[in-house]
Every structure is written in C-alpha cells, then in structure tokens.
Design goal:
Shape: elongated
Radius of gyration: 16 Å
Order of helices and strands: HHHHH
Distance between the termini: 32 Å
Helix content: 55-70%
CATH class of one domain: Mainly Alpha
Length: about 100
C-alpha cells in the first residue's frame, strides 16, 4: 500500500538516527565511510539512498538495508505520482 507523502529517507536519518544519538553529520559520515557532502546531500533531501548506502546505514544503525531502500522507493514513487497527469502516455491494448 502506498503511503501518503512519505518522508525522504534523509529526514528519517536525521530525526530517528542522528538527533536522538546527538551525532553530527560529520561524525556519522566518518562512521559510514562516506564524505560529509554525501551524507549531507541525503539528509537534506538532495540525494537518495543508494543500495550501497542502504547497506552502510543498516550496519551503522543496526537496521535492515531493505527498509532504507523501501523508504527511498516509496518516496520516489509518491513524487512521480504527483506528476502523473503531466506524462504523455497512451494506454496500450491487444489488437
């Protein structure tokens, strides 16, 4: 079932992982083995969670990588659905 306006995974990282632990983006990025810029882009919604990043997050925060990818997929699909009427697609059917 599709969620109504799901949060970007970056919001979840910030609200449920970084803030409760009192961890900065810089410290988290170092622990994840990525640049501060990379993590900042995700946390601020400018980039998505890749499969590799999902694995990194799952290790660092003891979660499942699938949960991170599912969040990203739900967010991306909801965003795409908002532009459904703008798409120029014709329905195909058997002749």
């Amino acid at each position: 079932m599709q969620m109504h306006n799901p949060p970007h995974p970056g919001e979840v990282i910030k609200a449920l992982c970084l803030e409760p632990l009192g961890i900065s983006i810089t410290v988290a990025a170092e622990a994840l083995g990525v640049s501060r810029k990379t993590l900042s882009s995700i946390v601020n919604g400018r980039a998505g969670v890749s499969p590799e990043m999902a694995v990194r997050l799952s290790i660092a925060f003891d979660t499942s990588s699938e949960s991170w990818l599912n969040q990203q997929s739900q967010y991306d699909l909801w965003q795409a659905e908002q532009h459904r009427k703008e798409l120029r697609v014709k329905r195909l059917s058997a002749a």
